[in-house]
Design a protein that fits this description.
With 305 residues, this protein is α+β, with helices and mostly antiparallel strands. The chain has two domains: 187 residues, no CATH class; 118 residues, no CATH class. Helix content is 51%, strand content 18%. It has a five-stranded antiparallel sheet. It has a five-stranded mixed sheet with strand order 5-8-9-7-6, covered by helices on one side. It has a two-stranded antiparallel sheet with strand order 11-12. α5 runs antiparallel to α6. The chain is elongated, with a radius of gyration of 25 Å. The relative contact order is 0.12.
Length: 305
């Protein structure tokens, strides 16, 4: 590494992980869509409620999978003369070069390093305690490309695309030394969520959206318990439309919950950009307005029934 090349950016192994996340997203969408369509068109009674629950669970998992895939797509390991910066979604680590004891591929470390209990291609995240090595923090995507970076406090396991080149580059950085090492810093998603919650306006918007969504479920359940058939909409003459089974009204809170989850996820993405907080606020306001409109719709359909 020369003075004309102050930093090197190493990408993690991405291809397999991105394919895996893409397939997972498609499967979740198909399960959710199939459950909703089956429940609305063909199924009645308890099975209908079960299908709606399946749809809710899959839709709730969708933002998590999307976040993991997005984090992998934008992940990078930034090697500078003063240390290593790891960026992985909302997770970031700054490791001063002066605190690094040794860098070595996991397969050549002499230790058996088990992966985190919950992991999959593209998302090897978490920590494990390894006998003789200590706590190992995984911020990686591929088990076959793991390289260990040891510090006095913990060991980091990462997976650069070119393990050998990363190792030699880091060794060269260690040999050069540093005049102003990085300040050790660790930022995890929970810290970001706490920063969102500490914003008074954001907290009000989020609580409002959650309360309105909960009210929509309660009101819809009450309406269903007191009706057998309900009109879902009105004709152009202002008369109640075709009657449907009351249970199918659950489609409204399901749709609202999906919108809530997506609004929360997109809002969090924009909120972390200081110059785009307004976009996050607008998304969360839109989620609350959607809940209000659907609550009004449930009352109107109930009155018409």
């Amino acid at each position: 590494m020369t003075l004309e090349e102050p930093q090197q950016i190493f990408e993690p192994v991405r291809k397999k992980g991105l394919i895996y996340h893409g397939i997972a997203v498609v499967i979740l969408l198909l399960i959710a869509a199939g459950s909703i369509i089956s429940g609305v068109l063909w199924v009645q009674g308890n099975l209908f409620v079960l299908l709606i629950l399946v749809a809710l669970i899959t839709l709730a998992l969708l933002p998590w999978i999307l976040y993991r895939g997005f984090a992998l797509l934008n992940a990078r390991y930034i090697l500078e003369r003063d240390g290593l910066k790891i960026r992985w979604g909302l997770r970031s680590e700054d490791i001063p070069v002066t605190s690094v004891e040794w860098v070595r591929p996991a397969q050549e470390s002499g230790f058996l390093v088990p992966l985190p209990v919950i992991h999959w291609p593209g998302a090897i995240l978490g920590s494990r305690h390894v006998q003789g090595l200590g706590d190992v923090e995984f911020i990686a995507s591929d088990p076959d490309s793991l390289i260990l970076i040891t510090t006095p406090d913990k060991v980091y396991a990462i997976s650069p695309l070119d393990v050998r080149y990363f190792e030699t580059s880091f060794q060269r950085t260690l040999e050069m030394g540093s005049l102003s090492p990085l300040v050790s810093r660790s930022a995890k998603p929970i810290a970001f969520l706490q920063s969102v919650w500490s914003d008074g306006f954001a907290r009000i918007l989020l609580l409002t959206s959650l309360v309105l969504t909960f009210l929509l479920w309660i009101i819809t359940g009450f309406v269903i318990a007191n009706h057998t058939l309900l009109p879902l909409g009105y004709t152009t003459q202002g008369l109640p439309g075709e009657l449907i089974r009351a249970e199918q009204m659950l489609l409204l809170p399901v749709i609202n919950t999906f919108i809530l989850v997506m609004d929360l996820s997109l809002g969090m993405y924009f909120f972390r950009r200081l110059d785009e907080n307004l976009v996050a606020y607008l998304l969360w306001i839109g989620g609350s307005l959607t809940s209000i409109l659907l609550i009004i719709a449930v009352f109107l359909f109930s009155a018409a029934g």
